[in-house]
Write a structure and sequence with these properties.
alpha+beta; eight-stranded mixed sheet; 8 strands; 32% helix; binds coenzyme A
């Protein structure tokens, strides 16, 4: 049976220009937006194809993954609306896998912004806002950031939000694929203690 979202109706986290709010798998506007965002050339060239290309698939994915993350962790992938016109402009996430899937012990932060809204500081503002919320409300102060080392914009955002570059590593959790690894400055130099193994 589908689990309900643990967030109260109209829950949001405000940042200077944006509203960070939970996905609702039964809201067609949320599902349509996810399909649009994840099928832009920009997203596919940076993150690959997700196969989420219909409203039904988006709704099923959001229920199975996003809502399950909210229930299990109190965080997950959120929508971003611009406050001035309420346009949906992207997503910001804090996600953490769980056994039996490959996982590590600190959550990682991620973001995606519509191509036409790039370069306006939105990914940075959203990630800062979500991390502030996670620290104040959930006591989370250790987070990872992962991206392809070629994804310079994403690397730059991870630096701007205060994460420290810890090298390019072939991580077991990504099937041995190379990733630039960023971590909160206070995290141990030995990332193996967080279950992150090469
Ligand atoms: C990565 C992404 C989220 C950035 O969103 P954004 O809202 O444009 O990010 P911001 O405006 O907050 O910051 C972008 C920074 O990258 C810089 N930048 C842009 N292109 C760059 C490049 N080719 N090389 C280096 N830095 C670059 C910008 O100048 C800016 O830094 P600055 O403030 O110091 O000038 C967005 O481009 C995106 O959605 N890409 C596709 C999906 C993706 O890659 N997600 C991340 C997966 S790990």
């Amino acid at each position: 049976m589908s689990e309900p979202s643990p967030f109260p109706p109209n829950f949001s986290i405000a940042t200077p220009h944006l509203k960070i709010h939970p996905f609702d798998p039964s809201n067609p506007a949320h599902c349509t937006f996810l399909v649009e965002l994840w099928n832009t050339e920009d997203f596919i060239s940076s993150c690959g194809k997700t196969g989420i290309n219909t409203l039904a698939k988006a709704s099923e994915f959001l229920q199975r993954r996003a809502i399950a993350d909210y229930v299990r962790n109190g965080f997950g992938m959120f929508l971003l609306s611009r406050q001035s016109d309420m346009k949906l402009i992207g997503t910001v996430s804090l996600t953490k896998g769980a056994p039996p899937d490959p996982h590590y012990l600190a959550p990682d932060v991620g973001f995606s912004i519509l191509p036409e809204e790039n370069g306006k500081g939105y990914a940075t503002e959203a990630a800062v806002g979500l991390l502030k919320y996670a620290k104040a409300q959930l006591g989370i102060d250790a987070v990872f950031g992962f991206c392809s080392a070629e994804n310079k914009r994403s690397c730059r955002v991870l630096e701007k939000i205060g994460l420290e570059f810890r090298g390019v590593k072939c991580l077991k959790v990504f099937g041995g694929q190379q990733s630039a690894v960023y971590a909160s400055p206070e995290m141990s130099p030995d990332l193996g203690v967080y279950g992150l193994e090469e």
